[in-house]
Amino acid sequence: MRYVSFENEPAAISPDEFFMNEAIKEAKLALAEDEIPIGAIVVCKGKIIGRGHNLTERLNDVSAHAEMQALTAAANYMGGKYLKECILYVTMEPCVMCAGASYWFQLGGIVFGAYDTKLGFGRLNQKITHPKTVITGGIKENECSQLVKEFFRKKR
């Protein structure tokens, strides 16, 4: 895994935009593998400690979402199951399964790009995340949503 730190970046871009760009890179890896282009990273103290993109088709596993891949990688890196000081960056609003997993990991924050009005956790019950998890949506929303829209447009 390639680790990236925000500390050496110019101030012209916000940390949320910088890390969402990294999640978008993961989404593009999924796209190249003909997976739904959703990417995720986990950041702790300005350093990426977990990366993931959708692998549901390759692994024939409906739970192999980008968030699950990144959270598992981050927990392995940290050597523990709780990620209280970590932020999950994901290109699409997490589904109920991934938001529920974030509860158990006790994430410090979730930052997502595009809202998912059909399957996103916010549509059902925002209390599904840990009470201390800070949620931010809409970071690079257009770029994130275009990846998914274009993917499905080509499929139809």
Question: Can you tell me about this structure?
Answer:
By secondary structure, the protein is an alpha/beta fold. The protein has six helices and five strands. It has a five-stranded mixed beta sheet with strand order 2-1-3-4-5. Helix 4 links the parallel strand 3 and strand 4. Helix 1 runs parallel beside helix 6 and helix 3 runs parallel beside helix 4. The model has no long low-confidence stretch (mean pLDDT 92).
Quick one: biggest sheet?
A: 5 strands, mixed
Distance between the termini: 34 Å
| Overall residue-averaged pLDDT value | 92
What is the C-alpha radius of gyration, as a whole number of Å? Answer: 14 Å
Structural class: alpha/beta
- The oligomeric state of the chains shown is single chain
SSE arrangement, N to C: HEEHHEHEHEH
Sum up the overall morphology in one term.
globular
Spatial order of the strands forming the largest sheet: 2-1-3-4-5
How helical, in percent, are the residues?
40-55%
How many beta-strand segments? 5
Low-confidence stretches: none
Indicate the proportion of strand residues: 15-25%
Number of helices: 6
